[in-house]
Amino acid sequence: MAGLKNDMEIFFNIITLAFVLAVGFLLVILSCALYSNWWPLFVVAIFVLAPIPNIIFSSRAGNEEILSDNTPNGFKDFSQFLTAVLLVTGFCLPYVLAHSGAITYIAMVMSIGGGAFVYITIIAYLHFFANQGDDF
Fold first, then answer.
1. Where are the beta strands (DSSP E) in 1-136?
2. What is the reported pTM?
3. Distances 121 to 15, 23, 73 between C-alpha atoms, Å
4. How many Å apart are CA 36 and CA 25, to the nearest integer?
5. pLDDT tens digit string along 20-79?
6. What is the C-alpha separation between 66 and 83, in angstroms, rounded?
7. pLDDT tens, position by position, 82-104
8. Is the separation of the CB atoms in 27 and 117 below 8 Å?
9. DSSP code string of 42-106
10. Closest CA to 91 of 35, 33, 50
11. How far apart are CA 71 and CA 64, in angstroms?
12. Which helix (DSSP H) or strand (DSSP E) does residue 64 occupy?
């Protein structure tokens, strides 16, 4: 019975993450399609690329978790710096585009919200399913 509960929990997590990811993509695509301007689509690419430095450099960080603060590590610090640069770019690019008049302010809000949903979904997926290694 405990295995069934664990399977249902995993199934619920997957369904929830899929729904949040779909809402994020919907917001970004609507911010592009409603105003006939495809500049906000770059936000999705930036938010999808944001966790990649942590994923790549986590293997170089040693046995400890990449987001732990136990010991200083150059690889860990550099990956967190790159992730922070990409996150700031993901939030600020729509603002700069709206300020320059390339997109509307409503498209900016939709793009930032959708990009945040996409990034939160990726981080939540890595959090829920990172420790489930191969059972072999």
1. none
2. 0.77
3. 11, 10, 27
4. 16
5. 999 999 999 999 999 889 999 988 889 889 889 888 887 765 555 555 556 667 888 888
6. 12
7. 999 999 999 999 999 999 999 99
8. yes
9. HHHHHHHHTTHHHHHHHTTS-SS-TT--SS--HHHHHHHHHHHHHHHHHHHHHHHHHHHTSS-HH
10. 50
11. 9
12. none
Burial bucket for residue 46 (CB in 10 Å: 0-12, 13-18, 19+)? buried
Tokens of 110: 């939709």
Asked whether 32 and 23 are in contact (CB, 8 A), the reply is no
Q: Rounded to whole angstroms, how far apart are CA atoms 61 and 72? A: 10
Question: From the CB of residue 94, how many other CB atoms can be counted at a distance below 10 Å?
Answer: 28
The HSE-up count of residue 61 (CA atoms within 13 Å, CB side) is 22
Q: What are the tokens at 27?
A: 């917001």
Residue with tokens 């770059």: 42
From residue 101, how far is each of 54, 73, 109 by CA, in Å?
A: 34, 42, 14
